[in-house]
Specification:
By secondary structure, the protein is of the alpha+beta class. The chain contains 1 helix and 3 strands. The chain has a 3-stranded antiparallel sheet with strand order 1-2-3, with no helix packed on it. The longest helix has 16 residues, at 38-53.
């Protein structure tokens, strides 16, 4: 897997990855007024996934 290009602006991030012969463009958007930082958000998502498996 190879990162081809990363574009960053104030409100979003776009990452282009190449896996074998396919290019994937992933857009990430952040709420500028959000109360959670990225670490807290990821931990919350992991905890929710674990809770939903039970």
């Amino acid at each position: 897997m190879q990162t081809i290009k990363t574009e960053n602006s104030k409100s979003n991030l776009t990452i282009t990855k190449r896996i074998r012969t396919t290019n994937y463009i992933v857009g990430v958007h952040f709420n500028a007024t959000g109360k959670e930082n990225i670490k807290d958000k990821i931990l919350r998502l992991i905890k929710n996934d674990i809770a939903n498996e039970k």
